[in-house]
Write a structure and sequence with these properties.
The protein is of the alpha+beta class. It is built from 3 helices and 4 strands, in the order ααββββα. Keywords: Membrane, Transmembrane, Transmembrane helix.
């Protein structure tokens, strides 16, 4: 067993109860920190990312091993096909044009 001068005499023999208590306190501290990070960090990061260069996923669809993403990138909407062979831009629209087409599609299906 490792021995440090002055520590071994004061501490005595380590006990299982003391070890388990220290471990439980350390786990409680880690859980509290993790809860705080999960609870408060996303709100702060979202506030930092808001602005004209914001990227938002409007929708996504799996297509076998590929995936189709419709992204809002600032004032534009971009459709991207992503797969094993890389990514390809399928189309690009202005946000106003996209919203107009979406409204017309909603009216037609209603």
């Amino acid at each position: 067993m490792w021995s440090y001068p002055g520590v071994a005499e004061a501490a005595g023999e380590p006990s299982l109860g003391g070890y388990l208590t220290r471990m439980a306190l350390a786990l409680c501290l880690l859980a509290a920190v993790a809860w705080g990070v999960v609870r408060y960090l996303p709100q702060r990061v979202a506030g930092l990312r808001s602005g004209p260069g914001k990227v938002k996923v409007l929708c996504s669809q799996a297509l076998g091993r590929d995936a189709l993403y419709v992204l809002r990138i600032g004032p534009d909407v971009v459709a991207v096909l992503s797969g094993r062979n890389g990514s390809q831009v399928l189309g690009r629209w202005s946000l106003s044009e996209w919203e107009q087409e979406e409204a017309e599609t909603d009216e037609a299906t209603s």
